[in-house]
């Protein structure tokens, strides 16, 4: 009797309207990821910004600093500092910049406005964009890791993989949601890249991405650490350092990224509402 009741309860739960609707929405989100992926790889500009730019910087800086070490980092090989730094930069381009440009293009084409007249939930559409963005980030990171290790001899300590993965995941989520929010600052796709570059480039130069800022003025350090790129770069560089012991987690950096993730979620929610209302 109890077994029959259990089977009956499971059968009812599986056919609840809410459960069926959620499954349908998840399938639609997965389809949206595939559609967004096709659109992304057809756009040469998007692919160049997300994949080619970081790869170009890796090739240049890796070639110019072959065999170099950083005395202020205990003789750390430059390439072991630079690879995680350029990965952090690639994450910024892929998640923050590309997402902001994608949302701006959708707004310009009236897609967000038309979305309100369809039964497709807005969150499903946005989830597809976010999922595609994260997928591109994973591909970009993998390419940089392969090139960095195969051509320039960068080390990837396996025992610190928890630190690498958790830092990447938290940083990517925060940057993606902030990118959706940043689309409010972009008036058009023509001016968008310039606006976003003005936001990200200065922050990149003070965030230990291209070279260590050991000995920089304290006020500059404080400004850099207030933005998500610096804790993302520092966290990855700590995890990639061959001298690091443990899981490679830097709790302070993760805490800053978590705060930005929460702030990004709030900003993203408001942005989506405003974009729908403004279109």
Automatic annotation (TrEMBL):
GO terms for cellular component: ATP-binding cassette (ABC) transporter complex. Keywords: Cell membrane, Membrane, Transmembrane, Transmembrane helix, Transport. It is found in: Cell membrane; Membrane. The keyword Transmembrane applies. Residues 45-275 form the ABC transmembrane type-2 domain. The chain crosses the membrane at residues 46-64, 76-102, 123-152, 164-186, 193-211, 249-268. Pfam families: ABC2_membrane. It is a multi-pass membrane protein. GO terms for molecular function: ABC-type transporter activity. The keyword Cell membrane applies. It comes from the Bacteria. PANTHER family: NODULATION PROTEIN J. Belongs to the ABC-2 integral membrane protein family. This is Transport permease protein.
